[in-house]
Amino acid sequence: MNKVYKNALDAMHDVKDGSVLMLGGFGLCGIPENCIKALVEKGVKDLTCISNNAGVDGFGLGLLLLTRQIRKMMSSYVGENAEFERQLLHGELEVELMPQGTLATRIQMAGMGIPAFFTPAGYGTEVAEGKEVREFNGKMYLMETALLADFALVKAWKGDKYGNLVFRKTTRNFSVPMAKAGNITIAEVEHLVEPSELDPDHIHVAGIYVQRIFQGRNYEKRIERRTVQMSK
């Protein structure tokens, strides 16, 4: 099975209107830049995007918000995007916010084939509306369902032609569980190498979870919010 594609557009040829997408990354760290730009170019719309955040104005998922291609966002943090706020307040965007741990676990459970789990996070808040509640050992828990996606789009540091992926430091964030929760997982990598060039002990996502892979180009790797002073 040949998993190698020419570029993002080639790899996402069957992403269509109404697709449910998972997009790896945390803030702007480790986001699939090539895939997001290709989605803008394709012009697919009415997308449901599952991501920790909504990018920033004019970059990351912020690009898809500007072009009105996203119908629904499922996230845990959206505070860096003014256009997101505007669309939400004007009723132009459907939003499901959830605790970050709940988001991460819902994705992880999908990859493990577990349909639902119970968590105390969100009990007694708006998050609990319409959800089953049970008591365990004197404490109340919400039932949360696993999150599945038509396509999981992730970005790794290195990948081989079998789809095995290696991430650098915090860039693995949501990408590792997302790669296991998509019906089709598409990985863009900074370095596409031969299988013999990866140490099996250093692989973070096994190739069995990845259906398509391509060599990414022209990464900006922007910093969302600089928190250190520039050296004098």
Automatic annotation (TrEMBL):
GO terms for molecular function: succinyl-CoA:3-oxo-acid CoA-transferase activity. The keyword S-adenosyl-L-methionine does not apply. InterPro entries: 3-oxoacid_CoA-transf_A (IPR012792), CoA_trans_fam_I (IPR004165), CoA_transf_BS (IPR004163), NagB/RpiA_transferase-like (IPR037171). Keywords: Transferase. The keyword Amino-acid biosynthesis does not apply. SUPFAM superfamilies: NagB/RpiA/CoA transferase-like. It comes from the Bacteria. NCBIfam families: pcaI_scoA_fam (TIGR02429). PANTHER family: KETOACID-COENZYME A TRANSFERASE, SUCCINYL-COA:3-KETOACID-COENZYME A TRANSFERASE. This is CoA transferase subunit A. It comes from Paraflavisolibacter caeni.
